[in-house]
Design goal:
This protein is an alpha+beta fold and 303 residues long. It has an eight-stranded mixed beta sheet with strand order 1-2-12-3-13-17-15-16, sandwiched between helices. Strands 4-5-8-7-6-9 form a six-stranded antiparallel barrel. Strands 10-11-19-18-14 form a five-stranded mixed beta sheet. Helix 1 packs across helix 3 and helix 3 crosses helix 7. It starts with a helix and ends with a helix.
Length: 303
């Protein structure tokens, strides 16, 4: 889990993903010579901080967002949320401004507005993220930012065996999205990609439990095309990979932007479920990570 730990420790709140982009580009350049197929890398100004990896003759794309939740320093000691962080009073936040490194405490007023407690004023616009405490036990991984460092980890592990496919590392997902429309346009018009898998992390619920396998989401706030989801379920059954079917009425992902795009791209959210989402103590069962990787490997061959 060394790679996953490295990913969790890289600060990349929505809108400021460049550190994650730089790490991934270095990692891919170093590791791709060991992979089954050496991918073409698409990055640069036309892609902002996003990355696309193209393997062979692709039919299916994996989408994994690089960003995380966090806070932006406003005026005085006020904080504005990036996405929807869910942390208790006293949570350690870290960052850096022109005056040096920052480790401060999160506070709330009686109206639940967020503030920081620190020995000096932090420059406005500075982004603060959770201090990462990565814990690796017999059955669980626990850390801040498993959402969506685990989705990235899954994509990188699957990249080792992909012969035909595309991996898309996108931005801004936690704070409303924005990169998927132009990324979808690129992969559809260049390679006629019509199938997508959303490599992201979902939540433990009354119907999805830790340790019982990766979650295949049949719906959240959005409705993927049922015939496509049925094909995925059939492949999981045929390959005898443990999974759980998720049915929810709220929550969203990069799949929403694909569904509302002008391109006929089917999508399905497939991810390990976690406890304590958007907190510094997100927790995922190792069996759910294992089955997530296994299912994606099969889907990239069979879809």
């Amino acid at each position: 889990m060394k790679l996953l730990k490295q990913l969790c420790e890289i600060p990349a709140p929505s809108g400021n993903e460049f550190r994650m982009k730089e790490f991934l580009l270095k990692y891919v350049q170093k590791e791709r010579k060991k992979w089954k197929v050496k991918p073409e890398i698409y990055t640069g100004e036309d892609f902002q901080d996003c990355i696309i990896l193209k393997f062979g003759k692709p039919r299916t794309a994996i989408f994994a967002h690089m960003d995380s939740i966090g806070f932006t320093v406003r005026y005085f000691n006020q904080l504005l949320p990036i996405g929807s962080p869910d942390a208790e009073m006293g949570t350690l936040l870290v960052g850096q401004d022109r005056h040096g490194p920052i480790e401060c405490e999160l506070e709330y007023d009686k109206d639940n507005h967020a503030f920081y407690k620190f020995g000096r004023q932090i420059e406005r616009g500075t982004e603060l993220t959770y201090s990462v405490n990565f814990r690796d036990s017999k059955n669980f991984i626990q850390s801040a930012y498993l959402d969506n460092r685990l989705g990235i980890y899954n994509a990188l592990k699957v990249a080792e065996t992909i012969q035909d496919g595309v991996i898309v590392f996108g931005c801004w997902e936690e704070h409303g999205g924005g990169s998927v429309p132009y990324l979808a346009k690129f992969i559809y018009e260049k390679w006629n990609i019509k199938q997508a898998l959303i490599s992201d992390i979902t939540w433990i619920s009354d119907g999805v439990e830790p340790g019982n396998g990766v979650a295949i989401s049949m719906r959240d706030r959005n409705l993927p095309r049922r015939s496509y989801v049925n094909r995925i379920i059939a492949i999981a059954d045929k390959r005898k990979i443990a999974y759980q079917l998720e049915i929810e009425g709220s929550g969203s992902s990069d799949g929403r932007e694909l569904q509302t795009s002008p391109y006929p791209i089917d999508w399905c959210f497939i991810g390990a479920p976690e406890q304590s989402p958007h907190t510094p103590n997100e927790k995922v069962h190792k069996n759910d990570i294992k089955t997530m990787i296994a299912l994606y490997e099969c889907l990239m061959k069979d879809l």
